[in-house]
Design goal:
Layout: H1 19-37, H2 46-52, H3 57-63, H4 67-89, H5 100-115, H6 119-131, H7 133-156, H8 166-187, H9 195-210
Helix pairs in contact: 1-4, 1-6, 4-5, 4-7, 5-8, 5-9, 6-7, 6-8, 7-8, 8-9
Length: 214
């Protein structure tokens, strides 16, 4: 957490000293994410969340204090997961001798995997961004962090990109991918495709858009 970008730090919650409390916190986070996935988080009471987590109301309040803290922790967990995934993926050294199409495939696979099953989290993200300017700015910073990290890898293989305006196209391509996956995750509008087919088709779109070939 200390090495994470500032925009991922929504809230600081000291790690519980006892393993039993750490386990309870993990279960409460999992319960919160399950309720988000069911679009039932806003209506759920603290007692319902605690019951789903096989915990108690007293433990919930002792560890978290309130539901908003849980909501922020869930969004923070998603941001940290996204940053970690992208940072590992865009370590340039691993792509030095690889064709750019392989990177595009890996990028699409890993971002799609990050979003898969996160419909509730993304809905909560959109809802909070619509009413909280500071949070909306954090979302923009996350997207820009992802875009900048990906573009660095693309630029290292610029000789394979034949779009007439490579840099602008590289930046746009990342946001096209994020936008498509965000829309699909929330609405299921590409539900006629399997996960494998989804990755294949989005990868194909990016390769053709950037006009990638050796």
């Amino acid at each position: 957490m200390l090495d994470s970008p500032e925009f991922t730090r929504f809230i600081f919650l000291p790690e519980p000293a006892q393993q039993r409390s750490r386990d309870a916190l993990d279960r409460l986070l999992d319960a919160g994410e399950q309720l988000l996935a069911q679009n039932a988080f806003e209506e759920a009471s603290v007692a319902q969340i605690a019951e789903l987590a096989k915990s108690s109301v007293g433990t919930f309040y002792r560890i978290l204090g309130d539901k908003d803290t849980l909501s922020k922790l869930l969004l923070q967990r998603f941001f940290l997961s996204a940053v970690s995934t992208i940072n590992v993926l865009t370590d340039a050294e691993q792509w030095t001798t690889q064709p750019l199409q392989k990177f595009i495939q890996a990028l699409t696979e890993q971002v799609a995997a990050l979003y898969q099953g996160r419909r509730g989290v993304l809905r909560a993200l959109i809802l909070r961004a619509s009413r909280d300017a500071d949070f909306r700015d954090r979302v923009h910073q996350l997207n820009e962090h992802i875009a900048a990290s990906v573009v660095r890898v693309l630029q290292a293989h610029q000789q394979e990109v034949h779009h007439p305006n490579p840099l602008k196209a590289m930046q746009a391509a990342v946001h096209i991918l994020l936008g498509a996956l965000n829309q699909h995750t929330v609405t299921g509008n590409l539900g006629h495709l399997s996960q494998v087919e989804l990755v294949q088709e989005l990868s194909r779109i990016l390769v053709f858009y950037l006009d990638i070939h050796s």
